[in-house]
UniProtKB/TrEMBL annotation, chain A:
<dbReference type="InterPro" id="IPR001851">
    <property type="entry name" value="ABC_transp_permease"/>
</dbReference>
<feature type="transmembrane region" description="Helical">
    <location>
        <begin position="107"/>
        <end position="134"/>
    </location>
</feature>
<dbReference type="Pfam" id="PF02653">
    <property type="entry name" value="BPD_transp_2"/>
</dbReference>
<feature type="transmembrane region" description="Helical">
    <location>
        <begin position="81"/>
        <end position="101"/>
    </location>
</feature>
<feature type="transmembrane region" description="Helical">
    <location>
        <begin position="21"/>
        <end position="42"/>
    </location>
</feature>
<feature type="transmembrane region" description="Helical">
    <location>
        <begin position="227"/>
        <end position="246"/>
    </location>
</feature>
<keyword id="KW-0812">Transmembrane</keyword>
<feature type="transmembrane region" description="Helical">
    <location>
        <begin position="307"/>
        <end position="325"/>
    </location>
</feature>
<keyword id="KW-1003">Cell membrane</keyword>
UniProtKB/TrEMBL annotation, chain B:
<dbReference type="InterPro" id="IPR003439">
    <property type="entry name" value="ABC_transporter-like_ATP-bd"/>
</dbReference>
<keyword id="KW-0067">ATP-binding</keyword>
<dbReference type="InterPro" id="IPR003593">
    <property type="entry name" value="AAA+_ATPase"/>
</dbReference>
<keyword id="KW-0762">Sugar transport</keyword>
<feature type="domain" description="ABC transporter">
    <location>
        <begin position="19"/>
        <end position="256"/>
    </location>
</feature>
<keyword id="KW-0677">Repeat</keyword>
<keyword id="KW-1278">Translocase</keyword>
<feature type="domain" description="ABC transporter">
    <location>
        <begin position="268"/>
        <end position="514"/>
    </location>
</feature>
<comment type="similarity">
    <text>Belongs to the ABC transporter superfamily.</text>
</comment>
Length: 332, 522
């Protein structure tokens, strides 16, 4: 009994996260190999400027991918995040350029407008797909079109610009060469990691992804948790809209086309299972970085953008095959 | 009656066998599915295969139809070895199966379904619809169906007609053996009559029909011979004319185990009613009558019956998993209606489900997480998990149930079947339920763990918990229960008290032969 107590004095997560760490280590090693490769074969890869560049480039994808992780963990998918981001950006752009507000109030208003827009779209996705048990693939494909149309309608297909100066400064601010917007994304990763590992909510999300029926039989409302996952995904699309606006100083209704695919790729490369229940947001962070490093490094090495796209595609396919074998071993 | 002496070598026949099976064995890993099966088929007979669930009937059918190979023994068809590598090869030998679950394509037409294995083509290689429909009409006519539009989609047919389409499809290519697996399970009386007429006609054409059924009255109605399975072995083949339903039941049961059950049983004085069902009818129940019974605190009530008798459905209905059609549920005398498992749990119910991988456990998650799955409030504060509390809970439950495990953080999938089942129990026991529903509580559990689980359940009853146990294993029910309700066709056929416990009495009730159970019925 004593030995048992000793060996179990810690939390019950270490084992879980040890496994996660182990397979994240695989992703980490792949990332390390990429970094070494590009450092050796290109001159400019490992320079402070370029690193700042990469971090800036991956920020939006990382923000979207954090929300996407929640949805994929419960066995869903959200194809609408790119469009929802554009819609949220347009609504926030309208809000921030309303006359009669000081810069601080205008920015606050924009943040609320963007996140609320995202949340509402997420609630829609979640409620419709969970209540009628419809494939989220189709429902969010519908939302992809709804949100894109709404963005074009609300903006009258015009790009919105001339935001407050402070907003612009936030978008380009650095701390020791690290973009502030990237730190915002990292904060999101941390919060998501905490929620998924240390709250009842996170536990149930993993449970649903693994075995929905068992969770329902244990007396939990699977519907509410699924809606919550989609809502979180919509919320991060709203945050991504703010980051996008601050970075580029515009709100374009045609922003974010295809962003959903990059976000899904980051989650999958990060080792989260497409069938749900297995994975981590730390993996998602590494997945997003890998995509960013690949994009940046392959261009530095002199490959065309087309080649870069092909290679990223190969990596995604490879990641899914890897996941297949991981699932097989987990089943044993 | 029970004609042939046990182990009688020459099987009773009334013609010459063209298919003979001898000493057939089949293993799945270490599990014996068939452990010496011998029987024969004759031209133009209707041959019944009967036996309890898991006795080996389905495995034999799958081997005959080429779904999987056998490990040892012989099958001779027309004197040469028969070992089909695939269902396709079996069909070429004229062996056709109509499965319990149909293999029909819902959105295609009846005609397309009938010819799906070999669709007719025109000279240009296009689908020859005329020929397609002609063949379908012919195939349906052969079994006496001429009032159906073969161009209609399968989904427009009722279940009985779907089955007839399956039979028509099986018969259109030259069939020698037609295997019907539980063909009447979903049919009404009239539809069953129709099916029997068709079977008679097929038989008259010289086709051999293998008839698998749980209904002995049907077996005695249309079959010529009956082969009884028990524990993967064939016990005997009898001519129907020379045996009786009682004789068949005796063969199915054997003379085993009856002694060891009537052990210690102290008469517990009746406690309060924990749960009362009044004419409860679930959505799955096609009858217009429901079930009525009381479950008292401190007692274990068993529910026996064959697969499809509606046992699990009662538990699911009580627990709010399936909608309740009509009838009432009383909990501690108060009428209640659970709109979902959540309500049932709040009312101190627990449900150990049959399928622990599908419904009971989250396999990839740690033992501790599974143990707390229905008891999150006890291991969290303000939504934050309290890992020490959760581990303590899992360790205490583990000690109580003699769970063999490494660490509480190990995934449940690392445990043996018996220990996984204990984790399912632990999940509910940590809530201290007052009423515990159990569906096949020891399925796939080894003998040692079984005994431990029995001890745990009996202990719970002594502590005053009311237990309702559904099981297909009769020795299990007889060991655990204070009384057994026997279900057939969604109706309680009778209640057996402990002194009347015997497999024979249970089976007689389960096969709807209430009067044969010696007056204990109702």
């Amino acid at each position: 009994m004593t030995t048992q107590t000793l060996s179990e004095s810690g939390r019950s997560t270490p084992q879980l996260s040890l496994r996660t760490v182990l397979h994240n280590a695989g992703i980490g090693l792949a990332l390390l190999a990429l970094i070494v490769f590009f450092s050796v074969f290109t001159e400019h890869f490992l320079t402070p400027n370029n690193i700042t560049n990469i971090l800036t480039q991956i920020t939006i994808n990382l923000v979207l991918a954090v929300g996407m992780t929640f949805v994929i963990l419960v066995g869903g998918i959200d194809l609408s995040v790119g469009s929802v981001m554009a819609f949220a950006a347009v609504v926030a752009g309208k809000a921030i350029t309303l006359p009669g507000f000081g810069p601080a109030e205008a920015i606050a208003l924009a943040v609320v407008a963007a996140t609320m827009t995202g949340v509402l779209c997420g609630v829609f996705n979640g409620v419709i797909s969970a209540y009628w048990a419809l494939p989220s693939f189709i429902i969010t494909l519908g939302m992809l079109n709804i949100a894109r149309g709404a963005a074009l309608q609300v903006s009258d297909a015009q790009t919105i610009y001339s935001f407050p100066l402070a907003f612009e400064e936030f978008g380009s601010a650095m701390i020791y060469g690290v973009p502030v917007v990237f730190l915002v994304a990292l904060l999101l990763v941390f919060v998501a990691w905490f929620i998924l590992n240390f709250t009842v909510f996170g536990r149930i999300l993993y449970g649903i992804g693994n075995n929905e029926e068992a969770v329902r039989l244990a007396g939990h409302s699977v519907f509410r948790y699924k809606v919550a996952a989609f809502t979180i995904c919509g919320f991060t699309a709203g945050i991504a809209a703010i980051v996008y606006m601050a970075r580029l100083n515009i709100s374009s209704p045609i922003a974010g086309i295809g962003f959903e695919l990059n976000a899904i790729a980051a989650v999958i490369i990060g080792g989260t299972s497409l069938s749900g229940g297995r994975g981590s947001v730390i993996g998602t962070l590494l997945g997003a970085v890998i995509i960013g490093v690949l994009a940046n490094g392959l261009i530095l090495i002199g490959l065309s953008d087309f080649m870069r796209q092909m290679i990223t595609g190969v990596v995604i396919v490879f990641a899914v095959i890897l996941d297949h074998y991981r699932a097989k071993y987990a089943a044993k | 009656m029970a004609a042939a002496a046990p182990g009688a070598a020459p099987l009773p026949t009334h013609g010459s066998a063209f298919l003979s099976v001898d000493g057939l064995k089949k293993y799945f890993g270490g599990v014996k599915a068939l452990d010496g099966v011998s029987f024969s088929l004759e031209q133009g007979e209707v041959h019944a295969l009967v036996g309890e669930n898991g006795a080996g009937k389905s495995t034999l059918i799958k081997i005959l139809s080429g779904a999987f190979p056998y490990d040892s023994g012989d099958i001779l068809l027309d004197g040469s070895v028969y070992n089909p590598a695939s269902p396709h090869e079996a069909k070429q030998h004229g062996v056709q199966v109509v499965h319990q679950e149909f293999n029909l394509l819902d959105h295609l037409s009846i005609a397309e379904n009938i010819s799906i294995e070999k669709l007719p083509r025109t000279r240009l290689g296009l689908l020859d619809r005329k020929e397609l429909n002609r063949r379908a009409v012919k195939a349906l006519k052969a079994i006496g169906l001429d009032d159906i539009d073969v161009r209609a989609p399968i989904s427009s047919l009722g279940i009985a007609h779907k089955q007839l389409v399956e039979i028509a499809r099986a018969l259109q290519s030259k069939s020698r053996i037609l295997i019907l697996d539980e063909p009447t399970a979903t049919l009404t009386k009239r539809e069953t009559e129709r099916l029997f007429e068709i079977v008679e006609a097929i038989k008259a054409d010289g086709v051999t029909v293998v008839f698998v059924s749980h209904h002995l009255d049907e077996v005695f109605r249309i079959c010529d011979r009956v082969t009884v399975f028990r524990n993967g072995k064939t016990i005997a083949t009898d001519l129907i004319a020379q045996t009786s339903p009682e004789g068949v039941v005796q063969r199915m049961v054997g003379r085993r185990l009856e002694a060891e059950i009537k052990e210690e049983h102290q008469d517990v004085h009746q406690q309060d009613v924990a749960l009362r069902l009044d004419d409860l009818r679930t959505a799955a129940n096609p009858k217009d009558r429901g079930v009525t019974f009381d479950l008292h605190y401190g007692e274990i009530v068993g529910i026996a019956g064959l697969v499809g008798a509606g046992r699990t459905e009662i538990l699911r209905g009580i627990f709010g998993m399936d909608p309740v059609q009509s009838g009432r549920i009383f909990r501690d005398g108060q009428e209640i209606r659970f709109s979902g498992p959540r309500d049932a749990i709040a009312s101190s119910l627990g449900f150990v489900t049959e399928d622990r991988k599908g419904e009971g456990l989250v396999l990839d998650m740690p033992i501790a997480a599974n143990t707390s799955m229905a008891n999150m409030d006890a291991v969290s504060k303000l939504g934050l998990l309290q890992f020490p509390a959760e581990n303590r809970q899992a360790r205490e439950a583990g000690a109580r149930l003699k769970l063999k495990y490494g660490k509480t953080s190990d995934p449940v999938s690392s445990l043996s079947g018996g220990n996984q089942q204990k984790v399912v129990l632990a999940k509910w026991l940590v809530r201290n339920p007052r009423v515990l529903l159990l569906d096949e509580p020891t399925r796939g559990v080894d003998v040692g763990a079984k005994a431990e689980i029995y001890a745990i359940l009996k202990g719970l009853a002594r502590e005053g918990v009311a237990l309702l146990v559904v099981s297909s294993e009769m020795p299990e029910l007889m060991t655990l229960s204070d009384r057994i309700l026997v279900l057939a066709d969604h109706e309680i056929q009778g209640e057996l008290k402990r002194p009347d416990f015997s497999e024979e009495n249970i089976l007689n009730l389960a096969y709807g032969r209430a009067n044969a159970a010696g007056g204990q019925a109702q």
